[in-house]
Amino acid sequence: MAQPLMPHATASWLVDNTALSFEQIADFCGLHILEVQAIADDTAATKLTGRDPVRAGELTMAEIEKGQKDPDYRLVMQKGPEQIRRTKGPRYTPVSKRQDKPDGIAWIIRNHPEISDGQIGKLIGTTRTTIAAIRDRTHWNIANIQPKDPVTLGLCSQRELDALVAKAAKAAGIEAPVDNRLEGDREALIEQLRAERDAAHHGGEGDHAEARDAGGFIDPFKH
Q: Is 221 within the bounds of a domain?
Protein backbone atom coordinates (compact mmCIF):
# COMPACT_ATOMS: atom_id res chain seq x y z
CA MET A 1 0.00 0.00 0.00
CA ALA A 2 1.20 3.50 -0.80
CA GLN A 3 2.61 5.45 2.15
CA PRO A 4 3.00 9.18 2.82
CA LEU A 5 6.24 10.76 1.66
CA MET A 6 7.31 11.51 5.25
CA PRO A 7 5.75 8.81 7.48
CA HIS A 8 7.03 9.89 10.90
CA ALA A 9 6.22 13.57 10.42
CA THR A 10 2.79 12.63 9.06
CA ALA A 11 2.15 10.36 12.07
CA SER A 12 3.10 13.22 14.38
CA TRP A 13 0.52 15.51 12.74
CA LEU A 14 -2.21 12.85 12.86
CA VAL A 15 -1.54 12.20 16.56
CA ASP A 16 -1.79 15.92 17.39
CA ASN A 17 -4.70 16.87 15.15
CA THR A 18 -7.06 13.87 14.90
CA ALA A 19 -8.80 11.29 17.09
CA LEU A 20 -7.54 8.37 15.00
CA SER A 21 -6.26 5.35 16.90
CA PHE A 22 -2.54 4.55 17.06
CA GLU A 23 -3.25 1.41 15.04
CA GLN A 24 -4.94 3.39 12.25
CA ILE A 25 -2.09 5.91 12.13
CA ALA A 26 0.55 3.16 12.16
CA ASP A 27 -1.22 1.33 9.33
CA PHE A 28 -1.55 4.45 7.17
CA CYS A 29 2.06 5.58 7.73
CA GLY A 30 3.63 2.13 7.51
CA LEU A 31 5.05 2.32 11.05
CA HIS A 32 5.07 0.03 14.08
CA ILE A 33 2.32 0.91 16.54
CA LEU A 34 4.93 1.39 19.29
CA GLU A 35 6.65 4.02 17.16
CA VAL A 36 3.38 5.94 16.99
CA GLN A 37 3.03 5.56 20.76
CA ALA A 38 6.54 6.95 21.23
CA ILE A 39 5.70 9.96 19.05
CA ALA A 40 2.52 10.57 21.05
CA ASP A 41 4.37 10.27 24.37
CA ASP A 42 7.21 12.55 23.20
CA THR A 43 9.68 9.73 23.87
CA ALA A 44 10.89 9.48 20.28
CA ALA A 45 14.60 10.08 19.75
CA THR A 46 13.88 13.30 17.86
CA LYS A 47 10.97 15.71 18.24
CA LEU A 48 9.26 15.77 14.86
CA THR A 49 7.60 18.67 13.11
CA GLY A 50 4.19 17.50 11.97
CA ARG A 51 3.41 17.31 8.26
CA ASP A 52 -0.20 17.86 7.21
CA PRO A 53 -1.22 15.02 4.83
CA VAL A 54 -4.41 16.89 3.89
CA ARG A 55 -2.50 19.90 2.61
CA ALA A 56 -0.06 17.53 0.89
CA GLY A 57 -2.94 15.91 -1.00
CA GLU A 58 -2.44 12.48 0.60
CA LEU A 59 -5.64 12.46 2.70
CA THR A 60 -8.98 14.23 2.78
CA MET A 61 -10.81 15.39 5.89
CA ALA A 62 -13.70 13.14 4.85
CA GLU A 63 -11.36 10.14 4.97
CA ILE A 64 -10.07 11.15 8.40
CA GLU A 65 -13.64 11.53 9.68
CA LYS A 66 -14.48 8.02 8.47
CA GLY A 67 -11.56 6.70 10.49
CA GLN A 68 -12.53 8.65 13.58
CA LYS A 69 -16.07 7.22 13.48
CA ASP A 70 -14.95 3.62 12.93
CA PRO A 71 -11.80 2.37 14.77
CA ASP A 72 -11.62 -0.63 12.41
CA TYR A 73 -11.57 1.53 9.28
CA ARG A 74 -8.28 1.72 7.39
CA LEU A 75 -7.42 5.05 5.82
CA VAL A 76 -6.95 5.09 2.06
CA MET A 77 -4.22 7.16 0.45
CA GLN A 78 -5.57 9.69 -2.02
CA LYS A 79 -4.11 9.89 -5.48
CA GLY A 80 -2.13 13.11 -5.74
CA PRO A 81 -3.27 15.73 -8.23
CA GLU A 82 -1.61 15.78 -11.59
CA GLN A 83 1.44 18.00 -11.71
CA ILE A 84 0.81 21.22 -13.59
CA ARG A 85 3.46 21.61 -16.25
CA ARG A 86 5.05 25.00 -16.18
CA THR A 87 6.48 26.76 -19.18
CA LYS A 88 10.11 27.78 -19.12
CA GLY A 89 10.93 30.96 -17.33
CA PRO A 90 10.78 32.25 -13.75
CA ARG A 91 7.85 31.33 -11.52
CA TYR A 92 5.28 34.10 -11.25
CA THR A 93 4.73 35.29 -7.68
CA PRO A 94 1.94 37.73 -6.77
CA VAL A 95 3.20 41.15 -5.72
CA SER A 96 1.78 40.63 -2.20
CA LYS A 97 3.95 37.54 -1.75
CA ARG A 98 7.24 38.84 -3.15
CA GLN A 99 8.35 40.42 0.10
CA ASP A 100 8.11 36.96 1.72
CA LYS A 101 10.59 35.33 -0.67
CA PRO A 102 13.73 36.03 1.43
CA ASP A 103 12.09 34.37 4.47
CA GLY A 104 11.22 31.29 2.41
CA ILE A 105 14.71 31.10 0.92
CA ALA A 106 16.31 31.37 4.37
CA TRP A 107 14.11 28.52 5.63
CA ILE A 108 15.17 26.20 2.81
CA ILE A 109 18.85 27.08 3.23
CA ARG A 110 18.66 26.35 6.96
CA ASN A 111 16.57 23.18 6.84
CA HIS A 112 17.58 21.63 3.52
CA PRO A 113 21.20 22.48 2.68
CA GLU A 114 21.20 19.67 0.11
CA ILE A 115 18.99 21.75 -2.20
CA SER A 116 21.03 23.72 -4.73
CA ASP A 117 20.66 27.43 -5.41
CA GLY A 118 19.34 26.63 -8.88
CA GLN A 119 16.61 24.39 -7.44
CA ILE A 120 15.65 27.03 -4.86
CA GLY A 121 15.46 29.63 -7.62
CA LYS A 122 13.04 27.52 -9.67
CA LEU A 123 10.90 26.64 -6.64
CA ILE A 124 10.58 30.14 -5.19
CA GLY A 125 11.04 32.14 -8.39
CA THR A 126 14.13 34.19 -7.56
CA THR A 127 17.70 34.76 -8.70
CA ARG A 128 20.94 33.04 -7.70
CA THR A 129 22.30 36.44 -6.66
CA THR A 130 19.55 36.88 -4.08
CA ILE A 131 19.98 33.34 -2.77
CA ALA A 132 23.76 33.75 -2.48
CA ALA A 133 23.34 37.03 -0.60
CA ILE A 134 21.01 35.38 1.92
CA ARG A 135 23.29 32.36 2.25
CA ASP A 136 26.35 34.60 2.83
CA ARG A 137 24.34 36.97 5.04
CA THR A 138 25.24 39.93 2.83
CA HIS A 139 21.63 40.64 1.80
CA TRP A 140 20.72 44.31 2.29
CA ASN A 141 17.81 43.34 4.59
CA ILE A 142 19.43 40.37 6.34
CA ALA A 143 18.66 41.76 9.83
CA ASN A 144 14.93 41.46 9.17
CA ILE A 145 14.88 38.10 7.40
CA GLN A 146 13.18 35.38 9.46
CA PRO A 147 13.26 31.77 8.12
CA LYS A 148 9.67 30.69 7.41
CA ASP A 149 8.20 27.66 5.65
CA PRO A 150 7.65 28.65 1.98
CA VAL A 151 4.51 26.50 1.89
CA THR A 152 2.99 28.46 4.77
CA LEU A 153 3.97 31.68 3.01
CA GLY A 154 2.18 30.51 -0.15
CA LEU A 155 5.33 30.55 -2.29
CA CYS A 156 5.00 26.89 -3.34
CA SER A 157 2.87 23.83 -2.64
CA GLN A 158 3.68 21.13 -0.08
CA ARG A 159 3.87 18.55 -2.87
CA GLU A 160 6.39 20.63 -4.82
CA LEU A 161 8.57 21.13 -1.75
CA ASP A 162 8.43 17.45 -0.75
CA ALA A 163 9.31 16.34 -4.28
CA LEU A 164 12.26 18.73 -4.42
CA VAL A 165 13.57 17.62 -1.00
CA ALA A 166 13.37 13.96 -2.04
CA LYS A 167 15.07 14.67 -5.39
CA ALA A 168 17.87 16.71 -3.82
CA ALA A 169 18.46 14.11 -1.09
CA LYS A 170 18.68 11.33 -3.67
CA ALA A 171 21.11 13.32 -5.81
CA ALA A 172 23.28 14.02 -2.76
CA GLY A 173 23.27 10.34 -1.80
CA ILE A 174 21.48 10.89 1.50
CA GLU A 175 18.16 9.73 2.87
CA ALA A 176 15.18 12.02 3.41
CA PRO A 177 15.98 13.62 6.79
CA VAL A 178 12.58 13.49 8.46
CA ASP A 179 11.61 9.95 7.59
CA ASN A 180 14.80 8.33 8.78
CA ARG A 181 15.39 10.09 12.03
CA LEU A 182 13.95 7.14 13.96
CA GLU A 183 15.31 4.35 11.78
CA GLY A 184 18.69 4.04 13.52
CA ASP A 185 17.20 3.11 16.87
CA ARG A 186 13.85 1.75 15.72
CA GLU A 187 14.38 -1.76 17.06
CA ALA A 188 15.94 -0.47 20.28
CA LEU A 189 12.99 1.85 20.81
CA ILE A 190 10.49 -0.95 20.30
CA GLU A 191 12.38 -3.26 22.67
CA GLN A 192 12.61 -0.52 25.30
CA LEU A 193 8.87 0.13 25.17
CA ARG A 194 8.16 -3.60 25.41
CA ALA A 195 10.50 -3.90 28.40
CA GLU A 196 8.77 -1.01 30.16
CA ARG A 197 5.37 -2.58 29.49
CA ASP A 198 6.54 -5.97 30.80
CA ALA A 199 8.12 -4.36 33.88
CA ALA A 200 4.86 -2.60 34.69
CA HIS A 201 2.97 -5.87 34.27
CA HIS A 202 5.35 -7.84 36.51
CA GLY A 203 5.36 -5.01 39.04
CA GLY A 204 1.60 -5.36 39.37
CA GLU A 205 1.95 -9.09 39.96
CA GLY A 206 4.56 -8.44 42.67
CA ASP A 207 2.24 -6.08 44.51
CA HIS A 208 -0.48 -8.70 44.35
CA ALA A 209 1.84 -11.38 45.78
CA GLU A 210 2.84 -9.15 48.72
CA ALA A 211 -0.81 -8.96 49.69
CA ARG A 212 -0.76 -12.65 50.60
CA ASP A 213 -0.23 -13.49 54.27
CA ALA A 214 1.71 -16.44 55.66
CA GLY A 215 -1.29 -18.76 55.31
CA GLY A 216 -1.71 -17.98 51.65
CA PHE A 217 -4.83 -15.84 52.21
CA ILE A 218 -5.19 -12.77 49.99
CA ASP A 219 -6.25 -9.75 51.96
CA PRO A 220 -8.93 -8.07 49.78
CA PHE A 221 -8.08 -4.69 51.30
CA LYS A 222 -4.50 -4.78 50.01
CA HIS A 223 -3.71 -3.91 46.40
A: yes
